[in-house]
Write a structure and sequence with these properties.
mainly alpha
Length: about 160
Amino acid sequence: MKFLTDRFKKRDKTPKVEQVTPDLGRLNLKPAETKPDAPTTAPDMQHWLDRDLQALDISWQTFIEDPSRHHWQNLSQTVHNFHGASGAYGGGALTRLTESLQRSVSDHLCCTENQGLINLHIQACHAWAVGNDEARTTLADAVCDALELQVRKVT
């Protein structure tokens, strides 16, 4: 019996695993290349902002002309994407505007009933885009306060 107990005590219960050294030669360790259409300068950023505002206008007009569920979903996605990009465009008031706009279009029924409020949000985004930094902050913050209050009352 002592022979069996000694044998179990000495036995290592962890399985033996062969150590494998990874072959890093197959990895591409070059720095990531910049995408050709990625905004890198202020004019590029302005171009992207203009494109996002244009997409917002188109999806909004399409929804107004035909407030179907499909066009509402397209508008919601456009607003969502614009809100996501707002930080790259400077954040602050634009992020607040697009967040409030996102709440305004979050429900199809609410979106059809509050077209005036949504239109004000879109126009405020356009106004933000043409101002300079100081004007953007001062005016946009006041507009954001008023619009956020209205959205809270409606939703």
